[in-house]
């Protein structure tokens, strides 16, 4: 209700200003993906920095393609949006985002350049080989794809390979994300181990492989997996893992952190691993769309989101991992109970042995075997068609039972979950 009232209030303010957009900033972001208290603080900060009033009109979406469609087809005049990596690539290819120009922001408050992670800089440069995405976008949150597993039933060695999802030992206890892009990549990596070892292909090659041959191979593999799948899930899988109804879940690191914490509270032991064969990383980032009307305020907003204390608050509120490379962000995550990990790739050479949660921040050795997913353009339809064939219309009865139970549980636990958000990756196609 608080969120609805906030949106209604600022929307009303926007209407009262008529067509004058100089004092209005329209932000379009994922739901549950920000500490909402930073919005009024931004308004005050912007006034202090520029002497100008600004009102944030904040709206949310749940699927990348919904956001993209509004901009692409409706020419919506959002000033700032937060798409995922492959959508940033698609928007770059279709000239739907503007290059960033922070010349109007004084160096003393330019938090973007001061807090860039070298890893984020590198990965965003790989989004499009011809256009440096760093000139068009600023990373916000990120994570990996891996396996959540019940340590009382599954060994780390078993969970350390993607083939765990096909293991007959766990038939009927496997949950898989209903996210074709994030399942295709890991499966293809598993199937191409020989080629990877020989050096005839790279992980990045596989992330752009939309050949009929590779799609057919992944489809055949997933049809074998299908017999043991308890459910193809959009968001209820982590909940089922905490209740012990599943013992294996192909999932995202953000969901893993939430599930591990929730499960521990009820005596269920979970862990998360990125399989040895390799995996994928994902990112979301701020961009200024082609039809933006308030570029100045949008630039200041993106800069404000990169201020270390704001990045930390957004990370703590949402449960996602900030892409901010500031030392303050690292210090906020130190946990002396964790084993040291090498985060020199992310925070610089001084962070080669720091104690943080390795699910949130993977060791360099894990990152070295992860690749960035890419947009397939028109070939995306081939991926979706394959996914539809794999799932088919014959989901087993247990799948429907799980969905019903999950909906009831989510409804009953709404207020609890609002106070304990830990990572929920959003809709990707």
Description:
Helix 8 (180-191) crosses helix 11 (212-226) and helix 11 (212-226) packs parallel to helix 19. With 429 residues, the protein is an alpha/beta fold. 44% of the residues lie in helices and 15% in strands. Strands 4, 5, 6, 7, 8, 9, 10 and 13 form an 8-stranded mixed beta sheet that branches. Strand 1, helix 2 (38-50) and strand 2 form a beta-alpha-beta unit. The protein contains 21 helices and 13 strands. It is globular. The chain folds into 3 domains: 2-135 and 284-328, D-Maltodextrin-Binding Protein, domain 2 (3-Layer(aba) Sandwich), CATH 3.40.190; 143-278 and 369-418, 3-Layer(aba) Sandwich (D-Maltodextrin-Binding Protein, domain 2), CATH 3.40.190.10; 333-366, no CATH class. Residues 4-10, 12-17 and 394-424 have low confidence and may be disordered. The longest helix has 16 residues, at 397-412. The two termini are 30 Å apart.
CATH fold call of the largest domain = D-Maltodextrin-Binding Protein, domain 2
**CATH class placement of the largest domain:** Alpha Beta
CATH architecture assignment of the largest domain: 3-Layer(aba) Sandwich
Taking all residues together, what is the mean pLDDT?
Answer: 89
Largest sheet: 8 strands, mixed
Structural class, judged by helices and strands?
alpha/beta
Q: How many structurally independent domains?
A: 3
Shape: globular
CATH homologous superfamily name of the largest domain?
Periplasmic binding protein-like II
Low-confidence stretches: 4-10, 12-17, 394-424
Number of DSSP strand runs: 13
Q: In DSSP terms, counting alpha (H) and pi (I) runs of 4 or more, how many helices?
A: 21
The proportion of residues forming helix, as a percent range, comes to 40-55%
If you compute it from the alpha carbons, what radius of gyration comes out, rounded to the nearest whole angstrom?
Answer: 21 Å
CA-CA gap between termini = 30 Å
Proportion in β-strands: 15-25%
